[in-house]
Amino acid sequence: MTLRRFRPYFGYLKQVRGPITKAVVYGLLYGAATGAGLPLLVNYVFPPIFDRQGGALPFSTVALIAACIPMVFLLRAVSGYLNSYYTQYAGVRILESIRVDYFRKLQVLPLSFVQSKRTGDLISRGLADTAQLQFTLTQLANDGIKQPATLIGAIVAVGWLAYKSQGVALMLVCLAAVPVVVFPIRFIGKKVIKRAADMQSRLGHVTAQFTENLAAAREVRAFSLEAREVDRFSQGTAELVTAQMKIAKYAQALTPAIEVISATGIAFTLLYAYGSGIELATFISIITALYGSYDPVKKMGALNSELKRGEASLDRLEVVLHEPVTIADPAAPVAVSRLRGDLAFENVSFSYGDNAALSEVTARIPAGTVCALVGPSGAGKTTFANLVPRFYEVAAGSVTIDGTDVRAMRLADLRRNIALVSQEPVLFNDTIFNNLLLGREGATRDEVIAAARAAHAHEFIEKQPHGYDTVVGERGGLLSGGQKQRLAIARAFLRNAPILILDEATSALDSDSEAAVQDALRHLVVGKTVLIIAHRFSTIRDASMILVFDKGRVVAQGDHAALYAGNALYKSLYDRQQGSS
Fold first, then answer.
1. Relative orientation angle of helices 226-276 and 168-175, to the nearest 10 degrees
2. For the chain, which has fewer Cβ within 10 Å, the N-terminal or C-terminal residue?
3. For the domain that residue 31 is a member of, what is the CATH number?
């Protein structure tokens, strides 16, 4: 059953079939040299040296016979080394492929899935669980060949030597204990898989705590939460240690159990050999081969435990790998180039799980309209805007641009026509120039600078240590909030898309910068469709259309004057904010 779980992932071995083939060949050589080599040396090589009845052997002959010993062990050492090397090489390449596939899948899953998981747990699955799966696959490719080969070689040697010495009876006595060791392997395997899943889950929890703490470093210090965070992390790591020790309790019991069973089998063989009058040399060679048959069984038992751990990691990875991609390119996409930006929502509904976010929303925003979305928190404004670039898929109804359903377009074509500035802009740990260039790959330096000037970012960029080549740090941590916001706006300006989505794009700016950016926006939005998700009413003074949201519905639309005079919700929201400002 366990091996069938891993069968779909054997495809990762194909890309490294050369190294894997070499590892298998050297594994077979190692198995033959280990399982049969030493017993045959004891039975056929050593006796002629000490058999004095036929007279002493010439020294050259003895030297030749003695040379067989290092030759066998040299073959075993070299084949074992090359087997391990090629297995490790294949394992590293497999790990690379698994992680890339996992990361690639995360890029195409809907935002609703990613946002429903803890970031640290997703990281743990992509790092710790992929590493466990890689280790399992390479161990399976390695010991899955080497240890059975060793076992077969040892059993053949036991059977041959026992049969030659005493017949079938001794052979059966010698091999009787071999199948008995399967029982502890099966018992421990069942215990390990449940505890391995718990351990990987707790590792994900600890990673999530770590990630969360680093992301909130300023808040932790501001609210003096250092001691509380250490206590939470200590508790999480203590639970992880407990889970790890539960696995160790069973996994480490496997070797002693097999050794006790093996020793019992050897003891019975000794009793039978004594009663049968077997010669010492023959008995030692049989015991050597018999002991050699137990060691690979022991390692195969450890491999079984490893498979159980890998299966637990596989369960966690498949939560992502098997998650359906619900937002993808259509089978026969409609070809679009530059859109005009005529937006239409027809009876659109959308829910986050069981929580309805939009209910039968119908609205039309003509091309070139600056439209503000206002309403209480949780009314559906951000969801409405996020349906345009298909960050989420509508549950019912349709969203069209220029009369074409967004689901009929290729995602790349659709999103190339949309520029987004979030309330919390994200910058990558790269230069300012490269962060701006994300707005439109291939833009010239002059175009990048022009976009920065339009967003009133050029002045502060020039004052940075390396100007446009200054690295901004992780998530732009070396810049102020206002500077990051202006870079994000400049990136959107550079994109020059016909549709702009501004999620309170000026919220982090001081009054002077906000006025300058608002002035730039007035020139930029000409001929473009703009959705402004408004949290502050000062940002919607230039909006030609306002949609008022409440409980997932558009309850009113119009300009400021008409809505203030005719809509009680809009008037109360506006007055409340004006009174608090």
1. 160
2. N
3. 1.20.1560.10
Task: Give the bridge partners for 419, in sequence order.
Answer: 500
Last-in-domain residue among 320, 352, 375: 320
What does the pLDDT read at residue 300?
73
Nearest-angstrom CA–CA distance, 439 and 488: 9
Burial of 376 (0-12, 13-18, 19+ CB in 10 A): middle
CA nearest to 421, candidates 393, 461, 370, 385 = 385
195/61 same-domain check = yes
User: Is the pLDDT reported for residue 168 higher than 50?
Assistant: no
The whole-angstrom separation of Cα 459 and Cα 464 is 9
Say what percent of the chain tops pLDDT 70: 75
Inter-helix orientation angle 130-166/280-321, to 10°? 160
Q: Are 16 and 94 in contact (CB under 8 A)?
A: yes
| Long-range residue pairs from 512-519, CB within 8 A, at least 24 positions apart, any chain | 513/456, 513/482, 513/486, 516/456, 517/455, 517/456, 517/486, 517/489, 518/542
Confidence band, pLDDT 50/70/90 cuts, at residue 1: very low
Phi then psi for residue 319, to 5 deg, are: -60, -35
Examine the domain organization and report whether 293 and 442 are in the same domain: no
* Same domain, yes or no: 303 and 379: no
Instruction: Return d(Cα 55, Cα 121) in angstroms, integer.
Output: 74
Q: What is the pLDDT of residues 490-502, one digit of tens each?
A: 888 888 899 999 8
Question: Is the per-residue pLDDT at 349 higher than 50?
Answer: yes
Q: Tell me whether residue 490 is in a domain.
A: yes
- pLDDT for residue 180 is more than 80: no
Whether the pLDDT of residue 128 is over 90: the answer is no
Beta strand 529-533 with 499-503 is parallel
Q: Name the helix (H) or strand (E) containing 316.
A: helix 280-321
Q: CA-CA distance, 277 to 269, in Å (whole number)?
A: 12
What's the mean per-residue pLDDT of the chain? 79
Q: C-alpha distances in angstroms, 565 versus 363, 488, 534?
A: 21, 36, 19
What CATH number does residue 542 fall under?
A: 3.40.50.300
Higher pLDDT, 464 or 115: 464
Same structural domain, 252 and 287: yes
> In one letter, which amino acid is 239?
E
φ, ψ for residue 531, nearest 5 deg: -105, 120
pLDDT band at residue 223 using 50, 70 and 90 as cut-offs = low
pTM for this predicted structure: 0.69
H helices, E strands: number in the chain: 23, 10
Report which listed range, 107-111, 420-424, 546-550, is most confident: 546-550
The answer to whether residue 92 sits within a structural domain is: yes
507 in any annotated domain? yes
User: Domain total for the chain?
Assistant: 2
The domain containing residue 478 runs over which residues? 343-580
- Judge if 356 and 313 occupy the same domain: no
Among 561, 108, 210, 579, residue whose Cα is nearest residue 570: 561
Do 290 and 365 belong together in one domain?
no
Q: Is residue 572 located within the same domain as residue 506?
A: yes
Last residue of a domain, one of 268, 288, 320: 320
Domain-located, residue 332: no
Asked if 232 and 369 sit in the same domain, the reply is no
